Amino acid sequence: MDRLITPDELAEFLHRPKATLYAWRYRGEGPPAIAVGRELRYRESVVDAWLDRLAEESMRLAPPSRSPGTRKSSSKAENPSSTGSCDGSAPSRRHRERHTDGPGAA
User: Fold this and answer.
1) How confident is the model at residue 61 (pLDDT cuts 50, 70, 90)?
2) In this structure, how many other beta carbons lie within 10 angstroms of the beta carbon of residue 100?
3) What does CATH list as the number for 4-61?
4) pLDDT of 70 over the 90 cut
């Protein structure tokens, strides 16, 4: 016989608030629960299967990993004439203030 766990136990295990479990149930997103009278219970094996499905989905959707020693090159290295802002446009006053000596610095 499969062990039944309470919403409190599952919330603690998943490190999520119990309200999240109820929201998932309402939206049909979380692990299926069983109503036992007025109480909800989750079959341990069903929760395990649900977590396995989530893991498989996240592995399919994950971007390809890079080799441990590789780094994405910065735009400054590729374009030395870059102005220093993230999108290539002129840096904003706020950006200049943060990355220079103060408001009047150029």
Assistant:
1) confident
2) 13
3) 1.10.10
4) no
Q: What is the DSSP string of 6-66?
A: -HHHHHHHHT--HHHHHHHHHHT-S---EEETTEEEEEHHHHHHHHHHHHHHHHHHSPPPP
11 beta partners: none
Q: How does pLDDT run across 20-39, given as a tens digit for each residue?
A: 999 999 999 999 999 999 99
CA 10/CA 51 separation, integer angstroms: 12
Within 10 angstroms of residue 83's Cβ, the number of other Cβ atoms is: 12
- Domain limits, the chain: 4-61
